[in-house]
What does this fold into?
Amino acid sequence: MNSTIMTEAAADLPEDSSTVRGTLAGTESQWQLIRRRFRQHRMARVSLYILILFAFCAVFANFLAPKDPLKVQARYTYAPPQGLHFIDRDENGDWSFRPHVYGYKVEVEPEALRRVFVIDPSKKIYLNWFVEGHEYKLLGLFPSNIHLFGPERKRDPLYLLGSDRLGRDMLSRLLLGTRISLSVGIVGVVLSLFFGVLIGGLAGFYGGWFDAVTQRTIEFLRSLPTIPLWMALASAMPSDWSPLRVYFVITLILSLLGWTELARVVRGRFLALKDEDYVAAALYDGASHIRVVMRHMVPAFTSHIITAASLAIPGMILAETALSFLGLGLQSPVVSWGVLLQEAQNIRVLATAPWLLAPGLAIVIAVLAMNFVGDGLRDAADPYAR
Amino acid sequence: MSTSPEQPVLQVRKLSVDFPHKDGAFHAIESLNFDLLPGKTTCFVGESGSGKSVTARAIMNIVDPAIITQGSVTIIDRESQNSLELTSLDTDSEEIRAVRGARIAMIFQEPMSSLSPVHTIGQQIVEAILLHQDVNETEARKRAIEALKAVHIHSPERAVDRYPFEYSGGMRQRAMIAMAIACEPDILIADEPTTALDVTTQAEILLLIRELQRKRGMSVMFITHDMGVVAEIADDVAVMLNGRIVEHGPVDQIFHAPKHPYTRKLIDASLGLEQAAARPVPPRPDKPLIQIDDIRLQFGGHKSWFSKTVYGAVVALESVSLSLWPGEILGIVGESGSGKTSLGRVLMGRYKPVSGSAIYTDRQGRERDLTQAASFRDKQVYREIRMIFQDPYSSLNPRMTVEQIIAEPLRINGLASGNELRERVANLLERVGLSASMMERYPHAFSGGQRQRIGIARAIALEPRVIIADESTSALDGSVRAQILDLLLDLRDELGLSIIFIAHDIGVVRYLCDRVAVMHRGRVVETGLAHQVCDAPVDSYTQRLISAVPRPDPRQRGLRSA
It folds into this structure.
């Protein structure tokens, strides 16, 4: 027997040598292969780091925010962003490392007779690490008032990204908005994933009338114009609902259409896999349907599902933004990127306070990063495809 | 062959092609030397990966992403004796495009993927003619019809306006040939043109190529891995191994006085199948293991909500009656579409026939009708009747290790766990000729033959009584195929198996099987002892089938000379 193996291996060498060389004798699992392929995708890797940063900001938004995102400061409306300086020069001309910003002074614009803030280099506001500020609950559990950084004196203005109409700090609001916007995307996709995998899986595995009905339903749902549908559903919400309830209903509305796409992906994979010989082999082993699905079919497309989901999150985020921007989604005091952008609806406001567009930049970066990560995952997803 | 006084039409010298790779390069072919002579057929044989197809592409100078690292390919005009070196030309230059298709034409293994599905056959031939010849469209169409006539397609005037999907596999290959010869090339490169075809169709195509070659004095470069085909059509043979020509000579010398050990191995592998002695018939107990009676299977024919209306049922099996006796290997042969695979699936409970029965007597002596879903409910049938699949690549879950794959049936049936399970898997691997240390690898690290061994290990894991092997060796190269067949024979004797072996390859069936059932269009047309059916067939269809099988001996050519 040994000699037969030898000759067979020798005869097949040219065909197989490349695969064997690449995979350390072929003992790497699917996930190891995916991870290695993903690492080779540079854009996706960089984007993944950006997303991790965003997620970090979302989780520790309160800790990172230097000012109370909800606190109205009538004295500093539409204050422009302050530049951050690191090197301080004191009266003697000595240099030292001490982060600081400059204060504001108020000038009156001669033509419009409007109050404008001008950076005043004579007033220095020094920044400190771990200062005490407004109260919050870390991770929603631990009460605290320590912030990563803040002005030495609690009352000094600190507007690294400027302030809005009511003098609230844009940076703090942006950080808090990250939390809502990202979680709307993720919760919405998780919901759609649940319905999509369940319905798509059943349709793909059993086929027949159930498949026909779900397919027609999906086609119908996808033929509806999305924005008017969302608007109708959102405006049907009673205005006296609590912000939290509105938040959940909005994610539900978003995933109402989101599941259709995922259901199609899952159904397609099921149909393709059903004809694979190894699935037939598992059936002939006497495996139950549940086992065939969970052990032989699901592992074959989890990577595809992760990919489809990561590509669906940006869609959710954009949809939430669109709804909130139109004033139909989340409402103050809940802060999301879309809610923030509501402030930037007026062209005259934009001309005087262009920093109100910062949330737009955050959306662009987040959506692009998610798309790149999704692309990277898709390329890495099937390590056995050529 | 270089002593031949005739002037070659193509001279290949020191041709080497590399596939650049992240670390170094893979040498696909290395310093090949050969000539192609007008009116002669040179066969290139070798197992997959030996560089046959790369050689053909290198002649056409279309090897991207590989690169031709050295050597020359010179094409010599038969009338003017002008020669043109091809490898130095730009791969997209005017000159090389004037050679491709016009002076060197090529036909491929899979005619469907080489034909455009959205154009009629005629349009595609006309386009080829217009590209290379200075004629108008009416004249080109006339030539296209002539070309179709030359490849014996019925009523070419009408066939010219049909689409590829309206053609059968053999007709498509004829159409490809028509397209190739429409510009009257000096050289025809045929890359496994009959591998995807049934034997009877293969015989027709081989005859056709030879007839056209004689008529037009073409030089044919024929790539194949089937020694029977080589013996049938070759004038010269080049044997390739790992990118090199290890032996080159006239066909008779290659078959009857091979010099290189690899050539000898190839010929022995094909002759081994051929020269199997008739095996003694095992004594028959009073009752068959599986008794198939009058089975009729049809597909479609019912209407369901929403889905497309089905116009009529396709009958896949029609009054099929067969019996499988304990300890025997029953071969089921037939061309594609003859219903042999459907029969296997009926026995595994996958398809439910309209009428008929398949009574299986299980270990406890209970009778179970395999056409009833209830027979499969307690999984005992699945433990006793096992399947080996055709494609060694799709039949193993790429996401499971070999250990998990072989352990799966044992685990599902709760027969072993933990260390005992691992030990049994190790024993099974060694039983099928693999090393137990390979357990942790994933299937993609194995070759086709090794994967098929893994599939066999999975099948015998439950100590079955019957194995249904559906074309289990058709995806394998000659010598590997012979090893797998011997393994099946060993296992039969050792485990007392009965095997239903579904195949289209008569040679394999003759070698392996005790009895043979020949199927044609869903019916069993002949049953009998393997050597009787193969050597003295009674039914006219079987006779046609057997005579179409090329014999691996050039002195016994079976095809009528045109």
